[in-house]
Every structure is written in structure tokens, then in C-alpha cells.
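Might you be able to consider the sequence and fold that I enclose below?
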Amino acid sequence: MKPVRQEERTGCGIAAAAAIVGVSYARAKAVAASLGISAQDRRLWSETAHVRRLLARFGLSVARKTRSFRSWSELPDCALLAIKWHVEDSRAFWHWVVFLREGNRRYVVDSNANIKSPLRRDFGRMKPAWFLPVTMRRGVRPPSS
């Protein structure tokens, strides 16, 4: 998977979707905008509906309900993870990252522009709260350019 850096401080959900789908941040941002989704909307990083809708528009299926993180080995081959989970003004927020397993290789794709490498294997440092499994849906065509 090719990493996509978020171009806005709050664009991690858009960047995570772009990385999973294999499009640029600008393309994912344009599709998000067509759905009424913006990085400035706090719901993008405090609720799951926006990122699920965005990925669905690209032909992916995302679980409707979050699943508690128990261990890295129990994650599906592709998942959105909520890390840096915290509460502000009685509302939960997090940073979206993508977990991938390819054969025996597993890693996290992190869109944060301030980290050294977007491909992470420092599993002990990341503290996922929960995750959403992501799968391709058959017969669904992604939006054209």
C-alpha cells in the first residue's frame, strides 16, 4: 500500500481512505466533498459514519460497529484503527490509521506528516482503542476521476 500524507491537520480520515483505495489525497478529498465531508468537520475524527461513507463510495465495505482492540494478531488483513484516542469537551476524538497484513508482513500506514516514516511497525508505541474491518465489495465500481 502506498502511504498518503494528510494535507490538513484534521485530514487523517481522508488520507486513510485514500491510502486504502490507492488514490491521491486530493482525489479522496474531492470525493469526500461531493458527499458533504470535510476535514474541518469534527465528526470526521470523532465519529465513524463519514469515513465509512467515503470508503463505501470507493466500493469498500466497512463494519458498521467498532470492535475492541485486543491484539495485533487478532486484526483482519485490513482495518481502520483509532489511535491517540482522547476526550475533548465530553466528545471522543482519535487519529485514523490503516493496519495491513500481507502474508507474514504486518504494518500500520500513518498519514501524519510529522512522523519520520508513514509505514510503522512500532506496535508497542501505538495504543489502538478499537478498529473497523475493511473489505472490498464485489461488483461495485469506484467513482471515476
